[in-house]
Amino acid sequence: MLGPALLSASRSPRLRHLVSTSRPTARVVDRFVAGESLDDALRATRELAERGISVTLDHLGEGITSPTGALASRDAYLRALDALAGYGTRAEVSVKLSAFGQALPGGDDLALANVTPVVEAAAAIGSTVTLDMEEASTVDSTLRILATLRARHPSTGAVLQSYLHRTPHDAAALATAGSRVRLVKGAYREAAGVALQSKADVERAYEQCLEILMTGAGYPMIGSHDPRMIAYAHELAVRTGRARDSYEFQMLYGIRVPEQNRLAADGYLVRAYVPFGADWYGYFMRRLAERPANVLFFLRALASRN
Hints:
Blueprint lengths: L1 H8 L3 H8 L2 H7 L8 H13 L3 E6 L7 H17 L7 E5 L11 H18 L4 E3 L7 H14 L4 E5 L5 H8 L5 E5 L14 H17 L3 E5 L3 H14 L7 E5 L4 H9 L4 E7 L4 H10 L1 H14 L1
Parallel strand pairs: 1-2, 1-8, 2-3, 3-4, 4-5, 5-6, 6-7, 7-8
């Protein structure tokens, strides 16, 4: 029951203020967030590159409530891509369309207008953009915007969440030539009518969707830290005869770092999801909700620093 409680806490302004203003908390967050500035993100990018690990940068700040905020998100990504020139696909960006105005009136058109310059800037430096998936209510909107962007920039990536009942169908539709799809389990609180509720069911769905993507013609991006899912990806790659450059493993910054290093050293494509920015609270609370071990780490660190 801890996970749902933490997901609820991620939306609490009171708790946001309490956690965000705690000095010990800010230090613990460094494990999961590269920092608040673009320079912090670039430092992390360089450090990961030295270990043979690629990155996807995420400028934190979702659920924008004004057109001005959406423009600020756009500009933050444009600055990041300008700084990433020369990295090619070793450094790309991930965006949440809610940060580009998706939830505002005329949200589809507004988000598309704001994210298009980001996608074009990425293409200009030989990089690309992946559209993160958020709450289930935004899936159709996100996939519509994805289809529009892919008409001119087919390498634009998508994210699917295995815990949604609809995901096997979406995976089959996206498992096409050149289609980049990151598969994750899902980190938002959803109703039983929309999403699977038990860990075992979510894992079975992940395996099902992973098989759809790995046997398809696209470019699967295995977004998991679960050793079972990583092993199953290896099994599917052997079974389907996939070359190592036709898929990649993606893991969150600061989580299972030795495994990231091991996979990269073994010649697999590994990409770390590197968040940065001042608005880290919601992201941080979802990381705690995903695994009890993250909560224990957090509490131990607070105790040691107090």
